[in-house]
Amino acid sequence: MESLDIRVATLTLMRTFLALCVAPFGTVAAYYVIEILRRDMDRDVATIAAIAGLTAFVSSLVFVFPVLAFVPRLRKPSFGLAAIWGALVACGWAVPGVVHFARIAWLPILPLAALGAASGLVYAAVARRL
């Protein structure tokens, strides 16, 4: 009986995958917002936004989907948890060597964290709708 309650409260793996497919649009939108706020729109902004979205999608499949497959309760995270998780995954690309943690210039990593957080927030919003 308890497993039935868990199934109702969580998403199926297919719906989780669909939510992860939509989440990178948050990254793309956040990238455009960051570029507008910086007032530094390059002519390649669409290409860079597409690469950021593709990177977010691959990251979600590699680092997020396996966790969600084994821990069904995390498939509908709170907005705070989703934002933090997305930011950490995005920053994970920028900080491969944690050994030199103190030497990292943190200011350039903040936009990456914002991109990841945006992706996480979109995932949480879509997961609540499905």
Descriptive report:
This protein is mostly helical and 130 residues long. The protein has one domain (2-129). Helix content is 74%, strand content 0%. It is built from six helices and no strands. The chain has helices at 2-9, 13-22, 24-38, 45-70, 79-94, 109-129.
Given the structure, what is the number of helices? Answer: 6
Shape: globular
For the terminal residues, how far apart are their CA atoms? 23 Å
Helix content: over 70%
Low-confidence spans:
1-8
**Number of separate structural domains:** 1
How confident overall, as mean pLDDT? 83
Report the C-alpha radius of gyration, rounded.
16 Å
- Major β-sheet, in short? none
**How many E-type strands?**
0
Helix and strand element order = HHHHHH
Structural class: mainly alpha
Report the sheet-strand fraction.
under 5%
Summarize this structure briefly.
The chain is mainly α and 130 residues long.
Write a concise keyword list for the protein shown above.
single chain, 130 residues, mainly alpha, 6 helices, disordered N terminus
Secondary structure: elements and pairs:
Layout: H1 2-9, H2 13-22, H3 24-38, H4 45-70, H5 79-94, H6 109-129
Helix pairs in contact: 2-4, 2-6, 3-4, 3-6, 5-6
